[in-house]
Amino acid sequence: MLLEPLLLTIITAATPLLVAALGELVVERSGVLNLGVEGMMVMGASCGFVVAILTGSSILGALAGIGAGMALAAVFALMTLGFAANQVASGLALTIFGLGLSGLIGADFVGARRDPAPKLHLAGLSDLPFVGPILFGEDGFVYASVALLLGVSWFLWRTRTGLMLRAIGDNPISAHALGHQVLRVRLLAILFGGGCAGLAGAYLSLGYTPFWVRGMTAGRGWIALALVVFSSWIPWRLALGAYLFGAVTILQLYAQGYGLGVPSQLMSALPYLATILVLVAISRSHGRGAGPASLGTPFVPDH
User: Model confidence over 107-165: pLDDT tens digits?
Assistant: First the structure.
């Protein structure tokens, strides 16, 4: 059945986009714009693969990826929160730095291979036709992405802390006047976003394609950023967008496999073309009104 492998491929292609975009959504809800998602993802992919090769553990590799993403996010936080540097420039610098450093870390591991992260197998359930492999036959990263989606949705809309974070994103001055620790909340949000980006990158090298090659994120960090805007900063819309973009990403593979007369270069450009079209459509219909009011604006508390 063609539909089953198609859906499985879409899920694996969408998972890193979903995880990275959820982290960035929380960051932007706090009023911070971090354009360094690509750099944190590729660092997660590099460090996660290296640790997994050296230890033989996918779990330790995933933790290393999370740690690498958070380390880079801490550098971004130091620049933007500690020194009130421009967030756009700092994020771009973070991406360039991450791409270079990840290549250096993973230089000796190019071409190395390992078994992909193990998939869940529940006797009787995983063997069910069609729904078994899709619902009960994925790896831990996929289930973690679903749990993360539910957790972020609950946190932002059902908890007092989530309400405070959204208030800080809209008006940090008023939040500070009410006694909220604006910089602390933003720091934690940035670290969370970095951890998610690192986990998404680790999935690329440990589950999606279990090997390391320089620049293997291939622009997925930028797609994740576009997904946050596409979703209007709402988690469930972000999930729909991630699976939509995942479908567009693997469309090129199926088109080439069936010998359609479409240039492969055009098919490879489809995800990025879709990203541009989505950003243009959102900007024309919503502008900046749908996002946090203070997004990208540094905050310096007066003591």
Answer: 999 888 888 888 887 777 787 887 888 888 889 999 999 999 999 999 999 999 999 99
Measure Cα distances from 105 to 20, 50, 200 in Å: 21, 8, 18
Q: Quick check: is 134 in a domain?
A: no
Q: How far is CA 239 from CA 17, 33, 67, 256, in A?
A: 9, 20, 24, 27
Cα–Cα distance measured from residue 92 to residue 98, given in angstroms and rounded to the nearest whole number:
10
8 Å CB contact between 271 and 35: no
In this structure, are residues 275 and 222 in contact, taking their beta carbons and an 8 Å threshold?
yes
Which residues form the domain of 224?
3-111+143-285
pTM above 0.85, yes or no: yes
Nearest to 52 by CA among 4, 5, 118, 143: 118
Bridge partners of 179, per DSSP, are: none
Rounded alpha-carbon distances, angstroms, from residue 79 to 23, 73, 153: 19, 10, 29
3-state SS of the chain: helix, strand, coil percent to 5? 70, 0, 25
Q: Tokens 């541009």 belong to which residue?
A: 276
- Give dist(CA 160, CA 189) in Å, integer: 15
Maximum CA extent, the chain: 66
Number of independent structural domains in the chain = 1
CA distance 273 to 294: 28
Q: What is the Cβ-side half-sphere exposure of residue 67, based on CA atoms within 13 angstroms? A: 11
Q: Give pLDDT tens digits for 15-33.
A: 999 999 999 999 999 999 9
Instruction: Tell me how far apart the alpha carbons of residues 24 and 33 are, in angstroms, rounded to a whole number.
Output: 8
In a domain, 128, yes or no: no
| Amino acid in position 303 | H
